Amino acid sequence: MEIENIQAQIAGFDPTLLKDQLLEACASLGMRIVVAILIYIIGKFIIGKLLKLFDKMQSLSKLDTTARNYIRTAVKFALYLVLIVSIVAELGVETASILTFIASCGVAISLALQGSLGNLAGGVMLLIFRPFNVGDYIIAGGEEGTVRTISIFYTVLVTVDNKIVSIPNGTLMNSTIVNASAEKLRRVDLTFNIAGNVPVQKVRATILGVVIDTPKAMADPAPQVEPLVGIPGGLQYAVRVWVETPDYWEVYHELMREIPTALGAADIGGPSTPVSVSK
């Protein structure tokens, strides 16, 4: 019986009909390919125009370069994703299948790149909340320095000894951030150990004389020189001087040079710790 069915199918085979079907399928596929190419060309043109309009938006001109570039990249990625889905759908693939595939890829990538995605999320949070900007001096994640760049995954600092430190944004967002440049004024805090037999007024007058002679040290708020705590053989004095934030390190180093020199010239020495002699 099976042999007879096969023979009947062979007898009813029409080569001309098969040829017409193949030509029709090729023509349909060719038309789909041509339409897909046209969608790509037109879509790319439209995306280029939209990105140019995006660059000219007044509301984005207030953002810094890092934030603008990040948002532009995200918008560009979303537009090209829509274009690719449209092209694949035109070629005959169901949209639901495409979205399912994209979702599956997203889950797989997120599992493989958990740390990187955490840094990416941290970069987004930094751009939104802006705890610091490029050029600020910060202390965070066990490091400190001037912010050079804020990228999607890492924030780059330059330390005072000119080292480059890259901190993952995920680490930054999960740690305490101290921004030393956020305010216009900053206070220089120094401590000096002075012998206990030196009058407090003499110490204060000597140090305040140096502070007054420092050009970029501010008179208002007034500088302070006061005994802070007792130490063996003397007192520890706290010196607090307000400066404009950009002048912090210049004033800091000048005071660290001039105050010890002035104390020495005034014959004000450090505490002497008694030495115990074993009998």
Commentary on this structure:
- It is a single chain.
- The chain folds into three domains: 18-112, Helix Hairpins; 131-179, SH3 type barrels; 185-265, Alpha-Beta Plaits (2-Layer Sandwich), CATH 3.30.70.
- The chain is built from nine helices and eight strands.
- It has helices spanning 2-11, 15-55, 58-61, 65-90, 95-112, 114-129, 169-173, 200-212, 248-265; strands at 137-140, 143-150, 154-158, 164-168, 178-179, 185-195, 224-231, 234-244.
- Strands 4-3-2-1-5 form a five-stranded antiparallel sheet. A three-stranded antiparallel sheet has the order 6-8-7, with helices on one face.
- Helix 2 (15-55) runs antiparallel to helix 4 (65-90).
- The radius of gyration is 36 Å and the shape is rod-shaped.
- The N and C termini lie far apart (123 Å).
Characteristics:
279 residues, alpha+beta, Helix Hairpins, SH3 type barrels, Alpha-Beta Plaits, 3 domains, 5-stranded antiparallel β-sheet, 3-stranded antiparallel β-sheet, disordered C terminus
